[in-house]
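Reminder: ligand-aware prediction takes two inputs, not one.
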Amino acid sequence: MAENKAKMIIDKEFRISEVDERIYGSFIEHLGRAVYGGVFEPDHPDADENGFRKDVIKLVQELQVPIIRYPGGNMVSAYDWEDGVGPRDKRPKRLELAWRTVETNQMGTNEFVDWSKQVNADVMMAVNLGTRGIDDARNYLEYCNHSGGTYYSDLRKKHGYENPHNIKTWCLGNEMDGPWQVGHKTADEYGRLALETGKAMKLVDPSIELVSCGSSHTKMPTFPEWEATTLDHTYEVADYVSLHQYYGNPENDTANYLAKSMDMDHFIKTVISTCDYIKAKKRSKKTMNLSFDEWNVWYHSHQQDQEIDPWSVAPPQLEDVYNFEDALLVGSMLMSFLRHADRVKMACMAQLVNVIAPIMTENGGKAWKQTIFYPYMHVSVFGRGVSLQPVISSPKYDSKEFTDIPYIDSAVVYNEEKEELNVFLVNRHLTDNIDLSIDVRSFVEYQIVEHIVLEHDDMKATNTVVEEKVKPHTKGSSILKDGMLEGRLSKASWNVIRLKKY
Ligand code: AHR
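Here is what comes back for the chain with alpha-L-arabinofuranose:
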């Protein structure tokens, strides 16, 4: 295959699965300025009567985020949820051990549920299986989901919330495989505790779904044995197993960096195999699905975070400023979920505001969009429907860690109801445009709506509060004739080619 030509076939019948929209979820942790200064800033000129920043709400709505994980993250492993409910003036200030800050608890469960409603998102709640366990989890669930007439449900009512929150999705702890976690456990210790906690929680509310903790990343020494051992305990009580993964480019090897989504593909496939091994071992009829509930690029802020003094309130932690190449990798990570839409049913970009986030704010000032905002928004908005398996012939390259990396990375979503076909593509070639021919003959009477492109000559270009250097345009060149789509994908670019039946 010529270096700068690629071919693809897209057919209506090559169905992977219906896309679960929850793969476009996100995450808000009580960490840095995510909550205080991001979501909640009562003194901000654009705050509403609840103290929520309206400018942030607007940007979150643009992303169409369907579900948001809360309240952590590492923070949840030493969190007492009772601190964050009831009259604000009675809420204690606590040492927050995961990030070594002071937590004021001025925002908690009820306020977060209120905020989520404003951004049209469901809540994915996590319980503390680090310092606490069964009792705390069942009480928390009773507080949130029980209709009334019991101690905790009546306490919620007393706090001004007559109706239950009906939170459906609950994480059984966070990254319990990680030695950094407060209350870190071995796989057997965690598996037993998660099983018994899950059992009690499903007795309180059988309608909930539970996520069992998987590995914190692919390089964990316990991966994938952690999944095999923990799922041996939790397989029947849990509905999902979690995956977490962050990438970075500290060595400044962009060709290798852009291929890191192949590691993600491999991660997903290995976890699926491990789940299916446990299914076979248990002779179970149930198929375990995946919740990729933390993913993103995270490395730019590592150094500056070392310099933050402990025990301050909402310091600027994990404030990665993303560049253009990060946006390309984020696009590829999102496409990996689409290609595994049959098993990845939830995913959360970590995180949403200020902390390794697509949305940034100034305290008291403006909110702005990072480079990664755009691929996330495009896939969330245009990636609803059925994920189709594209058949791709692309030239390939090798990098330090990967071999046979296709220059063209792709995923395709067909929305039958709207009669729309959306093709997502990254050209990983750093110096050459690639001409792509796509056979779309099964989409009779379809026409191109637009070809969106995110490109920049400088791979390290960033956005700031004053200037948005990296933003998409719709001047991509594609034409469609007799069922063949001919497009040119600029070197190092993110593309969305949108087709519709007219
Ligand atoms: O998202 C930041 C942190 O990354 C989370 O608190 C933790 O779960 C993960 O290690």
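The first strand starts at residue 5 and ends at 9. The CA atoms of residues 357 and 496 lie 22 Å apart. We will return to this case in the review session.
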